[in-house]
């Protein structure tokens, strides 16, 4: 199972208006094991390295569909939800998945969160589905 982490600067992007979760174009892309995640300094697509290359994989990744935002005033939780993204039949070996807001420019496409699969995932002429937990993609709690 993949572990996930919110990029620290995603909070800055949220406050500065870089994100429009329900209205923007969000994608998830796949990176190989050469990527070294830096939760505290990576903010934009241009900070990423090691995007996978392989038959059937489209650079920039797959669109994240079914996005919604839930606010629970009782628990003070904000949850970003979405459908589980699918990458159609391809042959690649990713180690990471990164969710980001695609603005059309690498220097302006803010990163949201990343998943570490824990090891390389070998996909050979098959579909890869990133299963989103029922609790949502990202949950934030305020005091």
Give a description of the structure:
With 143 residues, the protein is mostly beta strands. The chain has one domain (3-141). It has one helix and ten strands. The strands form three sheets. The chain has a five-stranded antiparallel beta sheet. A three-stranded antiparallel beta sheet has the order 4-5-10, with no helix packed on it. A two-stranded antiparallel ribbon has the order 6-9. A hairpin with a 4-residue loop joins strand 4 (68-72) and strand 5 (77-81). The protein is globular. It starts with a strand and ends with a strand.
Number of helices: 1
Q: How many β-strand runs? A: 10
Order of helices and strands: EHEEEEEEEEE
Overall average residue pLDDT: 92
Structural class: mainly beta
State the low-pLDDT regions, or none: none
Shape: globular
The Cα radius of gyration reads 15 Å
Cα distance spanning the termini:
29 Å
Task: Tell me the number of structural domains.
Answer: 1
Beta-strand portion reads 35-45%
Helix content: under 10%
